[in-house]
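STRUCTURE:
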């Protein structure tokens, strides 16, 4: 990248109103790219994290939990549009149960803990420019959700996509919005600073923050974890879950052998020859949930000492400028992960939690599962598994990937999955109401497109009660 190309990118950001601190962070990572940094963390530079503390071993009395919650704020990452599922608005506005959306249930979770523990427990969403307006409109329907002194939303930054050829900012007149990308959720810390949200939380008397993705309804406010974290004195903690053979994606924590610090390694930071180690559930037995806790005072001190560049590891993400057009120019998106901040803070730690705290919805497979009777919705607005492990759902990508086509295929609601171990669908099938899946069921492409009639039971031996029918 030439100095001219960098100046063009910086000028583009200033013209778009991007904060100077965010431009400084972007410039830092461009420098890392120019120096040849790839962000790759090799297996021979780390040791597995094998024995972190477990939440199941923690006991916190109600008074301790209440005192911790009284100084805790809940932050939700809400910048995603759900484009991988064909959406053009915030994924958190997608209905989950009885017409209630992710956002509705998040608000209900927070309000339940507020009333149960008599705490203010502010809730704020980090939105993108594309999700802020519709999220604000949805929040306006919830009376009493805002806490004095704390904004309901703040904005993450945006930065130019860079051509891989010379790292100059890409131009795409067909859709100029595609010239921009978010800097990854590691931008959380910079956005808290530049938006003034960090200062407002501290001024209002809050000491701790619990952060999670808005599409993970398992990450409800936890009095026990809040009490544990406040009592630990740690500046930062990550929630982990034990891996299974099915957990081949997502990041994991490890110990860097050069300085014995905890670090986060993501898929994009793993060399191809190390992927067998990365995905092995025994080599690295815990995965990172992206549920985080940190001390706001210590974050403010780190930002004051370091400036806006905390030094999170680079993630070099190569894509095409138009994600739907593989023939469009190849670009680099400079990203960081918020979980990588674990290496910034002395004394950072992690805790292993139950699988119920990790319930992300990234695909329509996940959506069908959380809408089904494999999960129950409690009075505290949390989804809890009825059976463990949860069934595996694998829907034909050609026919079920977008939410619109998915909803058309289940006009009578999701099939019963509480007695299922897996459901695999190949071809285009429409499910009427009252369908049940038992054991491991596969619905093949033969006869598709077709209908699974009401009252059908799908199981290892195929359908019973009524046969799937072609139209």
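SEQUENCE:
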């Amino acid at each position: 990248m030439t100095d001219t190309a960098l100046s063009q990118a910086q000028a583009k950001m200033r013209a778009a109103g991007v904060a100077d601190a965010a431009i400084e962070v972007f410039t830092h990572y461009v420098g890392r790219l120019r120096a040849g940094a790839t962000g790759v963390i090799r297996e021979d530079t780390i040791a597995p994290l094998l024995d972190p503390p477990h939440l199941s071993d923690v006991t916190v009395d109600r008074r301790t939990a209440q005192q911790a919650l009284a100084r805790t704020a809940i932050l939700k990452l809400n910048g995603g549009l759900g484009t991988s599922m064909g959406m053009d608005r915030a994924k958190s506005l997608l209905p989950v149960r009885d017409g209630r959306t992710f956002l509705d249930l998040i608000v209900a979770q927070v309000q339940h803990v507020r009333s149960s523990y008599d705490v203010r427990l502010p809730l704020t969403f980090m939105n993108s420019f594309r999700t802020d307006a519709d999220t604000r409109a949805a929040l306006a329907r919830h009376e009493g959700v805002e806490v004095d002194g704390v904004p309901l939303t703040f904005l993450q930054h945006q930065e130019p996509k860079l051509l891989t050829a010379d790292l100059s900012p890409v131009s795409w007149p067909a859709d100029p919005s595609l010239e921009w990308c978010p800097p990854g959720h590691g931008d959380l810390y910079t956005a808290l600073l530049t938006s003034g949200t960090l200062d407002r939380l501290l001024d209002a008397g809050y000491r701790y923050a619990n952060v999670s993705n808005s599409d993970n309804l398992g990450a409800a406010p936890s009095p026990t974890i809040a009490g544990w974290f406040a009592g630990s004195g740690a500046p930062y903690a990550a929630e982990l879950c034990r891996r299974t053979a099915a957990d081949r994606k997502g990041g994991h924590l490890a110990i860097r052998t050069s300085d014995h610090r905890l670090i986060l390694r993501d898929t994009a930071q793993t060399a191809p020859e190390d992927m067998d180690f990365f995905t092995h559930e025994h080599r690295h037995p815990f995965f990172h949930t992206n549920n985080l806790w940190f001390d706001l005072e210590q974050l403010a001190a780190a930002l004051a000492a370091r400036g806006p560049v905390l030094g999170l590891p680079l993630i070099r993400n190569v894509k095409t400028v138009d994600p739907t057009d593989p023939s469009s120019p190849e670009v680099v998106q400079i990203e960081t992960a918020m979980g990588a901040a674990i290496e910034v803070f002395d004394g950072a730690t992690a805790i292993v939690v139950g699988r119920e705290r990790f319930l992300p919805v990234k695909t329509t497979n996940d959506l069908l599962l959380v809408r089904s009777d494999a999960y129950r919705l409690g009075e505290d607005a949390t989804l809890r598994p009825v059976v463990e492990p949860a069934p595996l759902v694998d829907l034909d990508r050609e026919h079920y990937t977008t939410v619109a086509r998915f909803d058309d295929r289940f006009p009578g609601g999701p099939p019963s999955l509480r007695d299922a171990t897996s459901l695999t669908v190949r071809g285009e099938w429409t499910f009427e109401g009252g369908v049940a899946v038992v054991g491991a069921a596969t619905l093949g492409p033969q006869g598709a497109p077709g209908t699974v009639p009401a009252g059908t039971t799908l199981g290892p031996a195929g359908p019973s009660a009524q046969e799937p029918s072609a139209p």
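REMARK: The two ends are 58 Å apart (CA to CA).
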